[in-house]
Each structure stands twice: as C-alpha cells, then as structure tokens.
Structure prediction request, 213 residues.
Amino acid sequence: MALLSQNRFPRLWLTMQMAIGGNACKQALATQYYSSQKNVLEIGCSVGNISSAFLAFPDLTFTGIDIDQRAIDLAKQRFRDAPNFNFSLRSLEELSRQGETFDYVIFAGILHHVDDETGLNLLKNAVKCTEPGGKLVIYEPEAVKSSDGWLMKSFYSHLEQGQYLRSRDQLKHLVEEAGIHLESIEDRMVSPGIVKRPYVARFNLIVGRPGGN
Ligand SMILES: C[S@@+](CC[C@H](N)C(=O)[O-])C[C@H]1O[C@@H](n2cnc3c(N)ncnc32)[C@H](O)[C@@H]1O
Prediction:
C-alpha cells in the first residue's frame, strides 16, 4: 500500500480514503467537539479529506497546512469555491512565529507519522497558535494490541502507513509534555466505509487546551 502514497498519487489516495479509509468516522471525530469557533486550523490537512467536514459551517475561516506540495495543490483545487478555506505549505513554526492564532486546532492522524521529537515540537508550536480558551483536538490510530481481532491486525499491517503508532498512554504523555491540559481522552472505533461495522481501527481522541488557561 505504500505505493498508493498521498504524495505520489494524491487523487487516488483521496479515493481510497473515502472508500475504505474511515473518512466518515474520522470527520465525525474532527467535528464532534466543534462549537461555533471562528478560526479553525488543521495541521497535516493533506488534500482536505477531513477539512471538508467543516464546509457544513459557513461562518468559520479554515486554514489547512501541510508539508506536501501536491496534496496542498489538490486541496486548493477541491476547495476553490470556498473562499473561507485556505490551504498552504506554511509550517507550523512559521504560523507561530507570525503570531497567528486559532480557536480550534486539529491534529488528525499526523502524529503517528512523526517521531516523538518532531511530534513534541509540532504540539508545542500548536499550543502557541491556540488562543487562550481555544481547543486542541488530536486523534490518532492507536497501536494494535495483542488482544485485537485478526481483521484489525490485518487492516493495520496492510493499510496503515504510519511508522510511529503509539499506545494511548504514550500519546497522552506526548500531549501533556507539550503543555496541553487534557480535558478528555476517549477510545473511538473506526470502520472503513460509511457502514458502522466492521471496526478496523481504534483511535485515541484527545481534547485539550493550552496549559495555564
Ligand atoms: C495520514 S495524513 C492525514 C491527513 C488528514 N489529516 C486525514 O486525517 O485524513 C498525514 C499528513 O500529515 C502531513 N505531515 C507530516 N508531517 C507534517 C508536518 N511537520 N507539518 C505539517 N504536515 C505534516 C503529511 O504530509 C500528511 O499529509
């Protein structure tokens, strides 16, 4: 499945995400804690597959950033009729240096693609970009456990491309180390398509706010 990577074939990758990538479940995770915030940031937005859930909220400004030029090009093309949606190759460090702030900040399935040092750095910069009182919503597939069923194990081994899958405790530790105050952490089962079963992944969904608020 590495052949079907987003940076080589972004449109095909998007089709796969929509067909068997659990997009419907993941979009529900991204929007579940959204409550009319005005400025949304998605870090690692790719082609905008999760971002599109926010088209349902016309009054917000949505900023998506990613390090993959081809993914961003496709996102721009897909959202060309939505002037309140901006996608760019800017890094999170750049946003934080420029003092840009947001009140709903999403990490959707990006941290399991980066090592702890990079993840910590991203999370710390995300804290700087979150307004006091703003929310950080982070969800990642949890590493499979020996007690998980064969279908989930098979799905992970054939389709999951992240090299840094973490346990719930490891993810929680990373998030707290970055100075994020945890409001909740939940396990969410994800099915591949639009039907509810079978489950093929377990995500840890964290809602937090910048520490000290
Ligand atoms: C698995 S994709 C997730 C895409 C989308 N958020 C979703 O849930 O479908 C992970 C994305 O994170 C991006 N990414 C990896 N490291 C990044 C970084 N340091 N800054 C921004 N994006 C990054 C990758 O290019 C990729 O588009």
Notes: The beta strands are 39-43, 61-65, 85-88, 102-108, 130-141, 180-190, 201-210. The longest strand covers residues 130-141.
